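Write out a record, fold above all:
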Amino acid sequence: MKVVKKDLNILILRYAVKAWIIGSILALIGLSLIIGFSPFGGISISGVILTLTGVYLFIESEIVHIVLDKTHSVFTMKRQKLLGTKVIQHQIREIADVQVENDDDGSYRVSIVLVSAKRIPLTPYLPGVTDNQENADMIRQFLNLAN
């Protein structure tokens, strides 16, 4: 996560899942296989698979903005994808903790835990705990939550 703005009353974070780059490349390679040639005549199955995978990755790429605003006592997370935007908003007083979660593959993500025990993932699962822990600690410190 990248810190966009941080002062006493507001913390704005941003991250981007840049799968669109890989998706675009795969889709172009796939299309060139479909249009260009197929060793068996007809449509190249590998070209179709690469194209569909590329399009999927392109569509699923997202930019996430996280705003913690103490002035208005609001936490807002906006996820922008090619096919739409999803906004989640909660009062800051609803936030009980910020934690680093891990999965079975050794990947980690940062999540906000609400008083209701609902978890809101802020990041996707990524390898390595260090950056995730630093981000969780920064958010926890900003919100004056106990470690």
Summary: The helical segments are 19-36, 45-60, 130-142.
